[in-house]
Amino acid sequence: MRALFTISLLCVSNIFMTLAWYGHLKFREMEWSKGLGLFAIILISWGIALFEYSFQVPANKYGFKENGGPFSLLELKMIQEALSIGIFLIFTLLFFKNEKIAWNHLVGFGFLILAVYFVFLKK
């Protein structure tokens, strides 16, 4: 249960992170943002990132073994990275339809999943 809750928090965190890091690239298509400068975009992204931290920090605190959670620090980081690339891939397919996902991207994603497998492999 604690593992599922941690992973759920990490999923929500990564959605906000992806929006903060890459969502502003779609702002140019929105009327309200046409006159915004870089500093304004940074502030908006920073505001979105606040929500990311509001989920990321509790996920790590709740999921960390030394706090009674099921995951080591390395496992938490690997879960976060795998979720990050997965959510980014979905975000790209939904919002950046001109971006093409090629075979080498999928192979790279596969290697990331293999990395997760090896990090969780018990000795």
From TrEMBL:
Q: Which residues cross the membrane?
A: 36-55, 76-96, 102-121
**This chain belongs to which protein, by name?**
DMT family protein
Matching entries from Pfam families are given as: DMT_6 (PF04342)
Upper taxonomic classification of the species? Answer: Bacteria, Pseudomonadati, Bacteroidota, Sphingobacteriia, Sphingobacteriales
| Swiss-Prot/TrEMBL keywords | Membrane, Transmembrane, Transmembrane helix
